[in-house]
């Protein structure tokens, strides 16, 4: 199997794991389960649970304790999209060609389905205590998700992103948004995989740094593609940042410097990953594919 | 000290405990900490952490492990109010005479501050793992909060409440809303107090039933007062349910039956509380004051 076949295989498996943990659509309140499940199953690359599982495997993890955490991180990611799409936020009617949750189920349900997913993410993650794993290790994993999803992580990044809309921002603010809004959950994904497989504190810290670099390179690449790609390749309008007068890594540093930096950051991440005394060729390929993608 | 002085004292102490766990207002994202802290400190009876602590004391608890859980349950309660007040939900501009969170900080911040509080509630609750308490007991308490706050608890009740707006509902739906929307968090409060003090599964179950009855009696009393009280006594407009064409316990069963039922449910709760082989005179008085209040 080549990498792309393997990626398709593992993504399908990951999606199935996530699906297993979704709530049954029953009871007087079943409308919210429907809205939650619609939101999670509306598509996506399943990147976070995939990275979590591959990091877990790299550190020698073989148990089932990782499964509820994989579902939980995808629920956290999904709730953030559902709330981001609300009229009070970005007011988006479509995502990946499908109606957004509030567009399909109404504004109130958009709020509640997001709340339901965040809460259910923690409920799901806490079932990891039932897997026969050391409870201290599970608690550590839960706390990483809590921290990285919250005001010192993803939500913190979203706040600053919202506040920066419609005005020029400086490098420091842009770094903050990039580090937290997308970076934090990627860090949590890989760190939880490492922690549950029994990695040492130093190893978990190394993984956090790698994930942070991957997230940053991923986003700079996004900014570059918005300028250099074509509508056909990207599958979405190019130059959207320019039209939206959005400050990006490219508008601050220029295309040449951005390309140089993405190269440097990527090399660093890959080097650090290779320096760990463990191997996962697929994880390495996955990270490369994220950074060097053409769309 | 009489009961009312003691209640004022303990409420002030409880409020101070909650305050201790609020996030520091600093960093690039400090606007969200401000909005979260404003929401929590905007007032309220602090009933849930108070009930939690008194139940903990009744079962012989004396440690500090209860403190983060007290703060967490108040954060969950507060986030639910913040999101309930949003334009997409009830669209309320004032609560307890103060601007609601979104009215003061904008709609986007209303969404994010609520998300921030829910996430931070779990983060705060998880610090209970640091208190030297048996991690399995802490995990059990966390899972109770997760379950009772989520789609099988409070959020579930809110969904059905939202769906029932503007149409007549039957006894079954009304019971569902009363049981979950307010009842679930009261149950969680008392159950967590019991669990962390080392109560047995049977005792925790008994406490759940008592809290459920207290919540139900509290709400039927609310419906009765809306009909029988005066604007002066209640401090808010009476007959509001009638004007809003809202189905209540009184509109379904009539005033006489409602009064009879609240009496019966209350007696049952108090009897079950007294039947436990533990004593907390203040908790008993507190519960009576909730049920037999005139406003």
Q: What do these coordinates show?
A:
The structure is a homodimer of 295-residue chains. Chain A has a two-stranded antiparallel sheet with strand order 1-2. Chain A has 14 helices and 2 strands, in the order ααααββαααααααααα. In chain A, helix 8 packs antiparallel against helix 9 (171-196). The first copy, chain A, has helices spanning 3-20, 30-41, 47-58, 66-84, 101-105, 107-126, 135-149, 154-164, 171-196, 201-228, 231-234, 240-243, 249-275, 281-291; strands at residues 94-95, 98-99. The longest helix of chain A is centred in the C-terminal third of the chain and has 28 residues, at 201-228. Chain A is 72% helix and 1% strand. Chains A and B meet through helix 2, helix 6, helix 7, helix 8 and helix 9 of A and helix 2, helix 6, helix 7, helix 8 and helix 9 of B.
Which overall shape of chain A is indicated by the principal axes computed on the Cα atoms? globular
The CATH class of chain A is identified as Mainly Alpha
Which pair of chains has the greatest number of interface residues, and how are they split between the two chains?
Answer: A-B, 55 and 55 residues
- Report on the biggest sheet of chain A: 2 strands, antiparallel
Percent helix among the residues of chain A? Answer: over 70%
Secondary structure class of chain A reads: mainly alpha
Give the overall pLDDT of chain A as a whole number.
94
Oligomer: homodimer
CATH-defined superfamily of chain A: Farnesyl Diphosphate Synthase
What is the string of SSEs of chain A from the N terminus onward? Answer: HHHHEEHHHHHHHHHH
Per DSSP, the total helix count of chain A is 14
C-alpha end-to-end distance of chain A: 23 Å
The CATH architecture of chain A is: Orthogonal Bundle
């Amino acid at each position: 199997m080549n990498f792309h076949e393997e990626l398709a295989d593992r993504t399908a498996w990951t999606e199935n794991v996530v699906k297993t943990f979704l709530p049954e659509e029953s009871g007087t309140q079943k409308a919210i389960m429907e809205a939650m499940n619609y939101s999670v199953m509306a598509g996506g690359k399943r990147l976070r649970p995939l990275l979590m599982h591959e990091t877990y495997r790299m550190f020698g993890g073989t148990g089932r304790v990782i499964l509820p955490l994989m579902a939980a991180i995808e629920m956290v990611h999904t709730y953030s999209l559902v709330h981001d799409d609300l009229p009070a936020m970005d007011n988006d009617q479509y995502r990946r060609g499908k109606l957004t949750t509030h567009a399909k189920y109404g504004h109130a349900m958009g709020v509640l389905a997001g709340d339901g997913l965040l809460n259910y993410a923690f409920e799901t993650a806490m079932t990891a205590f039932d897997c026969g794993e050391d409870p201290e290790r599970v608690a550590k994993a839960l706390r990483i998700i809590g921290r990285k999803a919250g005001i010192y992580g993803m939500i913190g990044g979203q706040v600053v992103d919202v506040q920066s809309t419609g005005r020029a921002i400086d490098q420091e603010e842009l770094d903050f948004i990039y580090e937290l809004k997308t970076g934090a959950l990627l860090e949590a994904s890989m760190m939880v995989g490492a922690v549950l497989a029994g990695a040492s504190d130093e190893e978990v810290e190394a993984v956090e740094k790698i994930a942070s670099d991957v997230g940053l390179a991923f986003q700079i690449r996004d900014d570059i593609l918005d300028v250099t790609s074509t509508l056909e390749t990207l599958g979405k309008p190019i130059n959207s940042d320019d039209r939206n007068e959005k400050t990006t890594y490219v508008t601050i540093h220029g295309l040449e410097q951005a390309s140089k930096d993405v190269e440097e950051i990527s090399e660093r991440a890959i080097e650090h990953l290779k320096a760990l005394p463990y191997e996962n060729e697929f994880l390495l390929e996955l990270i490369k594919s994220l950074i060097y993608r053409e769309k």
